[in-house]
Amino acid sequence: MAATNIGMMDPAYFVGRTELLAWINSTLQLNLSRVEEAAPGAIQCQLMDVVHPGMVPMHKVNFDAKTEYEMIQNYKVLQDVFNKLKITKHIEVNKLIKGRPLDNLEFMQWMKRYCDSVNGGLNSNYNPLERREACKGGKEISKRAAATHGAAKTSSTASKTQSATQTRKNEQHANAVSKSSKPASNRDPVYDEQRMERLNVKQMQITELKLFVDSLEKERDFYFAKLRDIEILCQFPQMEHLPIVAAIQRILYAANDNPSVMAEAQAMISQQPNQEALSLSPISESLEEERPKTESQKRKNISTLEVDMAANSTLSPRQRLSDISDVHHSGSPLVNYCTTLVANSEA
């Protein structure tokens, strides 16, 4: 079974645009000049029809799709085929139908990798023109491709003839120049040396520029892979609802370099309610729990004080003294002495 998921550092994602266009045009007999022309989704459907004959309902594919609605219908057909084949590749339809170069390039690189993994992507019995006739707009695109191929063959033949004639003229001119330049002993050696130095300097500059461009492309691919990993991580179900993830996605999907994007992302994070932290604080919870206890204790103390005052006002001195002796100072000599004095006074 072909691998349906490949990593961002897989060699498939380093295939160039020229190689992709040559593969699409030769497989489907088309004449695409840009990868973005595959944005409507009909080409992807026919590529799946090449490697899995009969799985794609070609009569539902629209090669003349112009609006987003028509393009989405093509991608729905492609998604149904993926579901039947149990292919778990995620199709980012909203990005592909906008014709973004990088998004379409990445998806077509994956398509080539998948088609090559299924029997080498070869099907000698497949007739792309005949299969396209069942699609809406398939005949027109086939006619345009055939006309372009015919014009290309004619132009190639004419260019070959013209190039042969030009080659003969150049050879004759070179022979005449060589004959006229035989007595080269009179040429200035200083001039020749300066000319060679200038040529060497230009060659070195060209080499440095090529190396610089190569390093920039590698750095671009490296950081693009990093951003893609961050995007995949932000799409995890456990993280996609977090405010920090929403702020990161706001920065990732910003269409321009407007400085307000960063401010908006910071605002999204700062809008988090602080009440959750307060509600989870053990200090605040303990304070809230202790408040009712303190108030109830105060009420008990006040009620006890009132009861004691009422009791003191109704009881006789002897009864109050006996209660005091029983509760607080039972067995004290001073209490006994006071008791004796009260008894004598009453007698």
Report on this model:
It holds the Pfam family CH. Its main location: cytoplasm. Belongs to the MAPRE family. Keywords: Cell cycle, Cell division, Cytoplasm, Cytoskeleton, Microtubule, Mitosis. It is a single chain. This protein is an all-alpha fold and about 350 residues long. The chain is about 70% helix and about 0% strand. The protein has 14 helices and no strands. The protein has helices at about 15-30, 40-50, 70-85, 95, 100-115, 130, 140-180, 190-235, 245-250, 260-270, 275-280, 280-315, 315-325, 335-345. The longest helix has about 45 residues, at about 190-235. The chain is flat and about 160 Å long. The model is unreliable at about 180-185, about 275-280 and about 325-330 (pLDDT under 50).
What distinguishing features does this structure have?
347 residues; mainly alpha; 14 helices; flat
- Biggest sheet: strands, sense, closure? none
Secondary-structure element series: HHHHHHHHHHHHHH
Low-confidence stretches: 181-185, 275-281, 324-331
Radius of gyration: 45 Å
Query: End-to-end distance, in Å?
Result: 117 Å
* Alpha-beta content class: mainly alpha
Shape: flat
Helix content class: 55-70%
Q: Beta fraction of the residues?
A: under 5%
Mean pLDDT rating? 76
Give the helix tally.
14
The number of E-state strands comes to 0
